[in-house]
Amino acid sequence: MAILDWHGERSDLSGIQLLDHAPESLNVDLGAVRRYRLGRVRAEMQKRDIGALIISDPVNIRYACGARNMQIFCARNTPPRYLRATEVVVGKLRDAIRPGITENELWSVLHQSVIAQNGDYCETRLLSSDQCTNPWFQETASNIIGENELIALDTDVVGCHGYYSDFSRTFHFGPGKPTEQQRTLYKVAYEQVRNNLDIIRPGMSFREYSEKAWNIPEKYHANRYYLSAHGVGMTGEYPYLYHHADYLDAGYDGDILPGMTLCVESYICEQGGAKASSWRSR
């Protein structure tokens, strides 16, 4: 019979818990964080009269027991078992933009910086330039970024301690000034985000939010992002807040609660248009 070495049980590997001593963990009571997360899981199990729980999703496993190692590997092999840093990372990406660089090369700046700051990984490769920005959800490729183009990105970063850092930005790189079309796309996307941030209040129902949220102009409606806002914790998660036009078909009711973290979305482009602008804030 094979005897497996689980390493963590060996007394000669006391340094295996070095993650708790990383610079971003200073002054953070990670034991309290893990107890809080586990306590919430147990409370929900008790509320639903669940006696035992088998968890297979790596994000849920990390939330329940703090296990970080090899999350992407585990997602494929299924064992049962912070925003500031990302702002710095996106700043480095922005500084690296230049004509002649490929989308893949530019995205690698963000990914390298995430790992250098002890973040976990990027869930997607959502960065595109110029005509590749429309429609959305086109990942990076060998496309070469040219002069005076828009570059749109979505971070989708699982950062320090497994917290999801999720925001979008659109940048313009010269040497010329943005065109009137580029300025309009950016302005409209920013207006949508600012309007919807301003209306959110604790206690607001999902239906009320949908009714009061910014109405997308008709010429941009067909290519809208599928959500108006969504929850974020250790990944993109509950609740999903839908646009008013989509609420009857896809929406559900509930309440925005104190302590919830929400991402407010915007993706603005005309159907068949050449360019788009993406904004997301939380």
Which key terms come to mind for this protein?
15% strand, single chain, Creatine Amidinohydrolase, three-stranded antiparallel sheet, 282 residues, globular, alpha+beta
What's the number of helices? 9
Under CATH, the homologous superfamily of the largest domain reads Creatinase/methionine aminopeptidase superfamily
Helix content: 25-40%
CATH architecture identity of the largest domain: Alpha-Beta Complex
Poorly predicted runs = 1-8
Q: Fill in the CATH topology of the largest domain.
A: Creatine Amidinohydrolase
Strand order of the largest sheet: 8-7-9-10
Query: Which band does the percent of strand residues land in?
Result: 5-15%
Radius of gyration: 21 Å
Quaternary organization: single chain
CATH class type of the largest domain: Alpha Beta
Order of helices and strands: HHHHHEEEEEEHHHEEHEE
Instruction: Describe the sheet with the most strands.
Output: 4 strands, antiparallel
Structural classification = alpha+beta
Determine the mean pLDDT.
Answer: 85
The rough form would be described as globular
Q: Count of DSSP E strands?
A: 10
Characterise this structure.
The protein is α+β, with helices and mostly antiparallel strands. It folds into two domains: 15-77, no CATH class; 83-281, Creatine Amidinohydrolase (Alpha-Beta Complex). The protein has nine helices and ten strands. The protein has helices spanning 30-47, 58-65, 71-77, 83-96, 103-116, 180-199, 206-212, 218-221, 244-250; strands at residues 121-122, 127-129, 150-154, 157-158, 164-165, 168-172, 229-232, 236-241, 262-268, 277-281. Strands 8-7-9-10 form a four-stranded antiparallel sheet. Strands 1-4-5 form a three-stranded antiparallel sheet, with helices on one face. A three-stranded antiparallel sheet has the order 2-3-6, covered by helices on one side. Strand 4 (157-158) and strand 5 form a beta hairpin.
